[in-house]
Amino acid sequence: MTEPELSCRNLHAMALVTNVVKGSSAQRLLLLVHGYGADEQDLGGLLPYLDPDGVFVAVMPRAPIAAPGTAGYMWYDMIGGDDITGQFTSALAELDALIDEQCEQFGLDRSSAIFAGFSQGGGLALALGLFSAPDDLPRVRPAGVLAMSPAAMTGPVDDGARDVPVLVQHGTNDPLIPVQRSRDLARDLREFGIPTVYREYPMEHQVAIEGLRDARSWLAEVVAGESPDEAVPDDPIELVPSVTTAQWENEVLRSELPVIVDFWAPWCQPCRQVSPIVETIAAMRTSSYKVVKVNIDDEPKLAQEYGVQSIPMIGLFRNGRLERSSLGLKPRPQLEAELGMLVIP
Description:
Layout: E1 10-13, E2 16-22, E3 28-33, H1 47-50, E4 56-61, E5 65-66, E6 73-74, H2 84-106, E7 114-118, H3 120-130, E8 144-148, E9 166-171, H4 179-191, E10 196-201, H5 209-223, H6 245-253, E11 259-264, H7 269-284, E12 290-295, H8 300-305, E13 313-318, E14 321-327, H9 332-338
Parallel strand pairs: 3-4, 3-7, 7-8, 8-9, 9-10, 11-12
Antiparallel strand pairs: 1-2, 2-4, 5-6, 11-13, 13-14
């Protein structure tokens, strides 16, 4: 196997600074779109895994908007932006033009290209590959789309995209974009008739070596003209299911069993550490207690109603009221004792 030849340079296409790496046997274009807070260099380290034979011209553009609080950039402001749709549409137009320019420059067929991306970039790769163009003009579809932990935006899937194979990958412990979104996305794509493969890994919002190996195998199949398509596995049964404000009264207040509620948030590291302890309690106490969790970011009214000012907070509800609570990360026996439970060694 040969290594790709590094031919990196900065170009300006529709104001996008772009890092281009031409493989030693380049025959296709590989668009790699970075995520929030990164830049045009960010995904270059994936190339030895995705393209060990150097068959791609890898095109890695930099997003046009500086990301606050980071040294990198963003395609749209998903935190406090007022014009996410406008920024997303503008990014699509810039990337679309860049693809055409690079295909022309290197004499490559756009229909043989692979569009790939991570996080925000994964959502943009999906949109470029599958969505109808805003002006309804026909858009040349790629040979495949690789979406890694995508921040997917909804949009009209073009009828001409139904033959484009897609690989969706996500981390089961992703604190930023819930894994369930990618599970549902993969199922929706298959319902549209799009050949789709879904993979998930025990990781956070990142790229894992196992995912790169799977992506490489998928790429090899797509380059060979195949359209990999697999049924999405059933969702794993959660020991500690999430409860929303709408479900609260039935699931907690009216429960015949006492209910242990884990108030948490994705950004809270101690919450992530206490989660396995709560799951252990759920597994050990199935006949005596119901155990659920509440994401206070998604359900701020519940957090306010029960005075949740610090997390993790584990509450014991009985007969419709909060009876006891425990704050912070603690060993299971101590947590059980603070909740007034019979401590199981």
